[in-house]
Amino acid sequence: MKIEEYLEQKRLEVDQFLEHYIPHTQTTPAILYEAIRYSLFAGGKRIRPILTIASAEALGQPPKALLPVACAFECIHTYSLIHDDLPAMDNDDFRRGKLTNHKVFGEAIAILAGDGLQTLAFELCSRPDLVHDVEPQRQIQVIYELALGAGNQGMVGGQVLDMQAEHQVADLATLQQIHHHKTGRLIRAAVRAGALLSGATPTQLDHLTRFAEHIGLAFQIADDVLNVTGTQEELGKAPKTDAQRGKQTYPALYGVERAQALAQECINRALDCLHPFDHKADPLREIARYIVNRRH
Amino acid sequence: MKIEEYLEQKRLEVDQFLEHYIPHTQTTPAILYEAIRYSLFAGGKRIRPILTIASAEALGQPPKALLPVACAFECIHTYSLIHDDLPAMDNDDFRRGKLTNHKVFGEAIAILAGDGLQTLAFELCSRPDLVHDVEPQRQIQVIYELALGAGNQGMVGGQVLDMQAEHQVADLATLQQIHHHKTGRLIRAAVRAGALLSGATPTQLDHLTRFAEHIGLAFQIADDVLNVTGTQEELGKAPKTDAQRGKQTYPALYGVERAQALAQECINRALDCLHPFDHKADPLREIARYIVNRRH
Question: With a cut of 0.90, is the ipTM above it?
Fold first, then answer.
């Protein structure tokens, strides 16, 4: 199967699950669910949940609990986008070619929709009717991974580091620390969660963890590069915003070409980590390549 | 033991736990931990975690996992206060006699501190070194309770309902729905979590759940009344803000005296639910009485 087909198929599975389990706007309070669904179905690539799925599939037969856990990572990712776009943060008007959440629903609802989406992530991972065919101990471990990836030593912490570094002279150590926290930890957690749900041995978990760390860094470098080279149409938002904001990025530090080469190096290292795995890890391999080749 | 002594002792236990497990400001990013600790140690009464503890104690010997779970409820409560105070929400400058989080750290950090505190709640409930002496299935159930109490059908949803009802004509059904979601669900979850951790039977859980629902409503009515009758000194913030904002409250609907009588009725019903329990439930009984008699 070609990677585009794989991604499309898994994206549909994720969308169908979210469509079914994230309440419709007739649920009270309607405006909250409308705001949550507005951002959740804004055309995201579902990279994080697909990584969870592909990671589980690399090890064999994943449990039914896989999809809710995978979708929990999308909830966390979406909530972070809603809050990042707020006037007090990046103050963005557009995201994926659509008005940002607070532009449509107002700041208060946007804050609450983000808050509710975070809670929803943990609800999906602990719902008794959804996550019942996995060893409870593993399930708790997955919830812990999700919390570590999303929290103060993960995504939230990375967002703070990113803000603090704006308009400062870029250095590699700071840049790595920002990327590691802001993007890397959640991607790492998404991959580990899938592995844990499929009963990974400690060695398998270790290989997949290092794979995830390399693609996480590549993902952020590629994002930085796209912000410089992408068009408004490709990005669904204004390009070159990082430079305007004085954000620390790899292209700012090394130039576009060297940054692209660095991302490719990360992918090569990631692929090396998958050596012990058979063809069932092919989707993971292709996702890794896709991360540096995508145009949006 | 007098209730004041009990509350003080349990408050100290909660504070000591939080002090030990919520990282100090030397952890990176320092400003994030500083902001989190600023609000977490702003002098809260720790009612929610104490309810979790008292509920567990009512049933016998609680596990060590009790304190982290109890403190998770305080993390959720504190994050909600930080976000509620934001300019886009209630736009409050003072809370418990101190400047609100965004007044000290700025809006962006206040949003992120709230986000990180919510994640921390789920981290505390799933940390393998903290929550190891409880049946994993029960632990997952507790995490699910926490998510339900905090989320879109709980606290977050209630906040949305509350905002929507501002400057509208108050009616009892709306008011009950707001209170039930905004305050009631998290208090209910706090009590249920303690009961679940102590191995409650379905019948015991049912009694304690109804107890929690009654005190939850009483708690919010008492809060509404205090907002009218309390002084700046007692409240640690400006009094009578609800009326200025056109908030729907029990005193607005019934007047202060009738509202106080209603709160007392709720407490009487709550105490009835504790009939099947022995003296180990005395702290729960005293907390119920304290809720309507407190002056802040």
Answer: yes
